[in-house]
Amino acid sequence: MTHSVTKGLSKLSANQQLVFDILKAESGPLTAYEVIDRVRTGSVWAPPTVYRALKRLIDEGLVHRLESQNAFLACTRSHQSEAWNIFTICENCGATQELSSDDIATRLKDRVAENDFLVTKMTIELRGVCRTCTNPKIAAT
């Protein structure tokens, strides 16, 4: 997975960079405890350390939290500052993809504005079965 977010970031700490690198290397989302298990090489990691790193990475727009899974994944797309995130999640293999749709976001923003509602955060999670799982021939190639 390549990371294409290029924001004017301040430098990440070593712990934050390690957590970010672990999430970038994964094909799917990880829970905080799965991240902890992966970073326990050479030093003792307490859950608060990982949670602080995850919070900073989310604040920087480098990581997303999937609400339904209480899991985290590295961002794969460049976003506007008020990004509305859309994900597809395969219920069979867990493959997760980040989608971009300015059209959907614009329509939803217009609709909520008509109802005098201010959205502060939005994540849409579409659950189903990915192409590889629905077509075994693709998985075999």
Notable characteristics:
disordered N terminus; single chain; two-stranded antiparallel sheet; 39% helix; three-stranded mixed sheet; Dna Ligase, domain 1; alpha+beta; 141 residues; Arc Repressor Mutant, subunit A; 17% strand
Give the DSSP E fraction (strand runs of 2 or more residues): 15-25%
What is the spatial order of strands in the main beta sheet? 4-3-5
Q: What's the level 1 CATH class of the largest domain?
A: Alpha Beta
- Summarize the biggest pleated sheet: 3 strands, mixed
Broad structural category? alpha+beta
* Number of contiguous helices: 6
Domain unit count: 2
The helix content, as a percent range, equals 25-40%
Unreliable runs: 1-8
Instruction: Find the CATH superfamily of the largest domain.
Output: Ferric-uptake regulator, C-terminal dimerisarion domain
CATH topology of the largest domain: Dna Ligase, domain 1
Mean pLDDT: 81
CATH architecture of the largest domain: 2-Layer Sandwich
Distance between the termini: 20 Å
Strand element count: 5
What overall form do the CA principal axes indicate? globular
* SSE succession: HHHEEEEHEHH
Rg measurement, Å: 17 Å
Could you explain how this protein is built, in words?
- With 141 residues, the chain is of the alpha+beta class.
- The chain folds into 2 domains: 13-75, Winged helix-like DNA-binding domain superfamily/Winged helix DNA-binding domain (Arc Repressor Mutant, subunit A); 78-141, Dna Ligase, domain 1, CATH 3.30.1490.190.
- Helix content is 39%, strand content 17%.
- The strands form 2 sheets. A 3-stranded mixed beta sheet has the order 4-3-5, with no helix packed on it. Strands 1-2 form a two-stranded antiparallel ribbon.
- A hairpin with a 4-residue loop joins strand 1 (63-66) and strand 2.
- The longest helix has 13 residues, at 47-59.
- Mean pLDDT is 81; it is low at 1-8.
